[in-house]
Amino acid sequence: MPERGRWGLALFLGLLGVFAVLLLASDRAPKMPSDPDHGIDLPEIRCLSCHGYGQKHPRPEDHPLRDDCFSCHRDAQGKLHPRWDAPTSLPGGWRDDPRLLAKGAR
């Protein structure tokens, strides 16, 4: 293979590797929808009324063991709104979800 072809192949493989790493590293929490039920002014306990265990839209089994929703989930524009006093465990939260609690016990 000519020298120029090797450099082109190396560049292509390098860019492909960078793209793969970026794709795998972009494990972000989903953004919140832009509707009245997902306002950043709502308390986290309100999130659990829909996303708690046994509710209409429960959190997935791989959810972090935290209930301070706004520390990870961004608003519809992509901005974080962490609260310094947000609880990491709430009634109806991860400690009451047997799937998540089992994960925490591992």
UniProtKB/TrEMBL annotation:
InterPro entries: Multihaem_cyt_sf
Residues covered by region (Disordered): 79-106
Protein name, per record: Doubled CXXCH motif domain-containing protein
Natural source organism: Thermoanaerobaculum aquaticum
